[in-house]
Every structure is written in structure tokens, then in C-alpha cells.
Structures
1.
Amino acid sequence: MIFRVKQFMERLAVRVTRPCINDMFWFRKIWRLKLVLICFALLTLFLFSKSGGDLNTSKNFFLSRSLIDDGTVKTTVNNTSRSLFLSTKPRTMVIILTYMRSGSSLTGDLIQQSPDVFYVYEPLYTLAKLRKTETHLTYFNKPDKENTAKRYDLNARELMESMLTCNSYDIDIHTLRQYHYGGSKTTKKYLECLKISQGVMGTASCLPLFQNACANSKVSVMKTIRMSVKSLKPLMTKFPTLKVVHLIRDPRGTLRSQQTVGEFKIKDAINATVKFCSRVIDDLKASTELYKVFPGRIKTVRYEDIAEAPIKATDEIYKFIGLNMTSSIRDYIWNITSAGHPDNCVICTTRNSSIATAYKWRQKLKFDVVTMIDNVCSTVYNKLGYLPLKNVNDMKNMKISVKKPMKFTP
């Protein structure tokens, strides 16, 4: 009897405690699930803010339509961009088209010293980078666009048009957040704003700084190494005030500098030389054809001419664009090219001697490499007036010129 009572009590205890145990189990399980969801939400917010801070590493998920189609964003963009765009008067537009390591940073800096200029440094950088992964272009309140190699020229022209006409409304959000805005006096404040204003809403709130700087200028200037001369024809046809500065450097200087910054390895020098000089030849041919259609709107400039006579060369470029050269601009040019400032930065424009910088390759390149470039790029030399070298002594003797005087049309 006692045994049966004991057995009954044990069964009763199990029945009573089992619901409690089950309740505790589910309670813990629910809290674990809540913690996971909270962590996921925090991670999402963190990544979203990061995507706004460094657009070049952001993902499409964080710039999806559901996040961008916000009424506040639309209102902000419409009010700050559309209204200013519509009120913008016809303006002079300039594209500095050149190649990597060809003196474009210096040339762009000289031009942006005019208070009439709105200057953007490498507007196509992000577009070209995203093309490699075929990342879609995302906008504030219009459909995404494909960004493939096949569509690159079209996307590039549309982006350049939006930049040149101060229509930031039609610029993709990735480009609006690229860090290259630090390379321009007129976009530095905008970049500073972006650094403290994360995400899509942050971009929209900073946009008036970009828009106003552009709309209040008389000349909009874009510097790019990521377009061909041929691809400019539709833009030049559409905008009669658009002018092109085609900037070219001695292939020996360009290729040596490209190799130094890691664009290609020395073992690939021949292929890199063939590719580069073929591109320059194509651009020169296209430039000649466009000059026939648009006379007076394309100017070919050698970087070495700027380096040797920076004030004179800049004055000529200013006249071509329609800018006024002032004494303060002349002083600035002298200070950054001839005044003995330090020269320890590969992308800086301040040089202790612009001539020494332009011809540094004569002291650094091996003569067999120079001979190879001379042979491969002979057509470029003939068109631009560069001279091949006979021996090492001639290469290192700075009194011997490696170019002849030329006037270009274009």
C-alpha cells in the first residue's frame, strides 16, 4: 500500500512539473529568437550606415527601391535639384579627357582656380568600378539601370550630361557618394557633409551643397580618364557650348608612372604599351574627325608644354574655355610649379619643379624599355611631336629635347 501511494505521488509530481518545464523551455526559446532578431536588426542598421559612408563597397540590398522610395527623400531631391536645374542658364561645359598618370590632376587644378568654375574630379570612377561586377545603378526615384560593359558608354554619357548641366537628380546614388569629391575645391564641402551624413537620407540632405556649387558657377568642368574621344560626339552635338581639352603626355612618362603605381607589372610592359598607344591613336583620329564637325571646340594639349611653361599654357587653355586669367591665379600657378614646394605625393599637384616631374622617366626608365616604347608608339610620336632617343646618354641629358614645337589643330 505504501509503495502504491509513493508511486502515485511520483506520477503526480511529474504531471505537475512537466508543464512548468515546458513553459521554461519555450520561454527561453522565444527570448533566444528575440535576441537573434535584435542582433540581425542592429547588424542591418550598421551595414546600411556603412553603405552610405563608403559607397564603393556598398551592396544593392542597402540601396534597394524599398529604401529609396521614401517621400522625404523625393521631396528633398525634387526641391533642391529639379528647381535649381530648371533655373540654370546656358553654361559653358568642359571635359578634360586624358589618361591615367598623364598630368590631368595638375591640369584640372590649374583650371579650377578660376572662381567661375565648378570642377569635378573623376566623375566616372565609381561607374567604371561597378561595371566590373555589373552592379545596377540605383537612383533616388527612377528605375535602376543595368551597368554592363555593353552599356558603359551610354551610362557614362548620361552621367556626364547630368554633371555638366547641374542635374544631380539624375546621378546614381553610388556616384553621389564617391570619395573623389575631395579632389575638387567646389565639392570638398559636399564630401565633408557626406562623411557625417550616412545612408540615402544623408546623401539627400547633403545634395544642396553639390547642387548650389554647380548651379552658381559659369563653367562646369569634368576631368576623366574613363571615356574615349569618339564617345563624346553625342554630347557635343546636344550641347553647343561643350568644349573638350584632350590632354596627352609622352607615352614614356605615362607608362613609367602607371607601372610605378601598380597599373601593370614590368613583365607586361609590351602589352601595356601596345594597348595604351592604340587607344591614344584612336582618340587622335576621333579628335580630328570631331574637329571637322565642331571647329574650335576641341583643343589638344601636351602635358610637357604645361610643365615647361605653366603660366603660358594655362593662359591658352583659359582663353579656349573663355575664362579670365588673374594675377592671383598666375601667382598660384608659379607657387605650385616652380616655387620649391615639397614633392612627396604621387597624386598631389604641388611640385618643386613641374619640369622635373614631367621628365622623371628619363632618369628612372631602363633604356631597353624606352627603345621598346619608341618603336611601338612611333605613330603617336609622329602626330604629337615626340622624339625617339638614340642612346642612354641622350636619354639622361636633360639639355636634349624629346619633343619638337608643335601647334595642334585640334
2.
Amino acid sequence: MAFSGVLSDADMKAALDGCSAADSFDYKKFFKACGLSGKSADEVKKAFAIIDQDNSGFIEEEELKLFLQNFGKSARALTDKETKAFLAAGDSDGDGKIGVDEFAALVKA
């Protein structure tokens, strides 16, 4: 698993279990449940790099849709509604994607 060594398997499972139903994803609850909100700035940057699958320096909408699968291979994809809400919450400069600083702010929100 990509987050091994950064987050505990038990915390990731608990976070994923908390949003297993469609349209139940809440990024604030998820980041708190998986333990990411309590991590250092460097660890949050490592998490960003894992989620930024194409290494563009940004998390785009397609990467957000598959966000949960970074935490567990069998996790569901986010619904379009969840993906758009997540993007809107994180995209503070309105460019349609989430940069590393925007992601850090979202994690700590």
C-alpha cells in the first residue's frame, strides 16, 4: 500500500469504512480518521505526491475521483458529486486543480 509507513493500516481501513457508501465522503472526517490531519508538513507533502499519480504537481479531477483507492485498492471511486465538492473545497485559486499548498490547507482544515 502506498501509504504504509506514513499512515497505519488500521486508521486507513477505519477512514475508508467511514465513507464506503456512495455520497458519504467528507474530506474533513476522512483526513482526521486516517490520521493525515495530524501529520507533519513533510508527511502531508508525501501524501500529495502519492495522490498526484501523473506527477504533474497538481491533483486534477480524475485523480480526485480515484482518491480513496490510494488508501485501499478495493476502495470505491468517488461519485461525480463528491469529486466536484472535494475539488471546490481544495481549489482556492480557481484553476481547476489542487496544488500542494492547497492540499495541505485542505488536510489541516
3.
Amino acid sequence: MKVRGIYPDSYTYGSIINGLCKDGRLDEGVEFFDKMVENGLVPTAVNYNALIDGFCNKGDLEKAFCYRDEMIKKGVAPTLSTYNVLIHSLFMEGKDGTADSLIKEMEGNGMKKDDITYNILINGYCQSGNVKKAFELLDEMLVEGIQPTRVTYTSLIYVLSKSKRMKEAADLFEKVTRNGVTPDLVMFNALINGHCVNGNMEQALLVLREMERRKVRPDEVTYNTLMQGLCRDGKVEEARKLLDEMKERGISPDYISYNTLISGYSKRGDMKDAFKVRDEMFDIGFNPTLLTYNALIQGLCKKKEGVLAQELLKEMVDRGITPDDNTYISLVEGIEDIENFIEKGTP
């Protein structure tokens, strides 16, 4: 452009700033923003929003609010997008009170909530477990003539499940799907998680089959959730079958899948099977995590295999994994000659 004598305008800079911020290259985004100002171009709300969104995604709310304050100071009015991004980040940080204040400020500036705002608010209150407020916002949304989406209903299913109101969650799922809302993977995963957490494993597995009927492909989150639920019920063999089913369907198990099985076998005292899964995990290329070692050490200590547990502790430290309180609690409970263990010096 410069070679041809065409000088970039605020739109040119804005596109590059937006791209850099979305790519996580915030420092470069800020440099282009400053260069734009140096070249005499006036930043727009869109330019500021790109930086605010970038810093919010990075978790730097202080910097995001600094740019919000700067835009106001320079006479650039924040838009609904500005508020939506900031409100979402405040909820994610658990700062519900500050989010409420920002909503009042937004409305005081004559801005009405849109579908994105409502979904952010409903999800935010659902994350903090405020069922009443979430459903009040749903009612308000409908009164305003704004149609709830799958995102809205997924948040509500999540909060009902979390509040041990699983029947209401399942009823809501049935109602909205009957009324034409097509459930996606995230909505199905929320429902499955609810059934698993509430101990309804039979229902959770039926939901998996319903996904197949609707041709919604499950992912590793779906299977990991089901495996965790089965292992909590001591049905480790069934969880193992699900791991095999995952592989058959071309879904790659992750370290959570293997740690779930290791933990399930260890709690039941089936250490041979637990170590077999650990070896399988190694063969695939996954490194053991703190959870892997804690589950194995706990299982060995329950079986009074203190010497093996100590060897595993040494291996864990050699791999650069720092033991936590749970590691030592298991060891203290499982090692009979604890005085000798302490005298040797714990890693």
C-alpha cells in the first residue's frame, strides 16, 4: 500500500489490531494502535473494543478497564459490545457485584440488553448457582421478544443439575427440544454431566444413545463424564468398555480418560489393572500427572503396600512432579513404619 502511495486509514489499522488481538498478540496490537494515533488517525469504538476484548481474554481486566476509561475520556462512547465483553469477563472472575453495576451503567446510558447480553447474564448467574436470577432473566428475555437460544438453555440445564434439580433439568431439555430447539454437543454434555453428578447413570447412558439417534457425535468430554460417573459407582469395567468404545469411534482418549480409570481401579484396590492402564497411558505417549500418581499411591497404601508407594513417590519426584497434601496424607495413612519413612527424609 505504502509503495503505491496508498496510506492506511483507521479501517486498515482496525483490521490488523483486531486480528492481532484475536491471535493473542496483544503487545503488537497495542503497538499498531499507538502507531495509528501517532499517524493522526482517531481511534473508533471498534478499535478500542478489539483491545478491551483482547485483554479480557487474557484475564487482564485492569488493563481492559483502562482502555474503557481512555475511550470515554477521548469522547468515544462505549458500545453494547464494550459492555458485553466486560460484563462477561467480570462474571468469569466471579465479580457479580461489579457486573451488576456495569449493567446499571449501560442501561443508564440508554442501551438495551440484546440476546448476547442476556446469554452472558444467564450464564454468569448459572455459574454462581443463582437459579432464581437466571430464570428471572429468561422471563425478562421473553417479555422483550428476544428468543432464547441453545446457549441459554444449556446454561439453565447446567444450573438446575448443579442445584440437584435434575428432573427439572431433564424436563426443560425435553420441552425445548419438542419446541424446535435442536440440541448440540454442548447441550447434550450438560445433560449427561447433570445425570452423572446426580447419580442417574442409567439415564446418562440413555442420553448418549439419544445423541447417536440424533446424529450428534460425542467427544472426549462426553465419554470422560460418563466414565467418571461409572467409576464413582464402582462400575469400572463398564467405564473401561466406554474407553474402548471411544477408540472404536475414532475419539482419542486423553489423560483425563486414563486417570479416571486408574483412580477407579485404585479405589477398588485392583492395583494390577490400575498399573495396566498406567502402562497403556505411557505407550500412547501421555505422561503421568499428579492425579495419576496420587490415585496409584492411595490405592497401594490402602493395600498396605507402603514400600511400593514410596518407590512411586520417588519416581514421581524424579519426573519433576511435586507431591501435594493428598500424596502425603495417603502415605501417612498407608505406611506402617512412618518414623523410618520420615527419618529417611521425604522427597
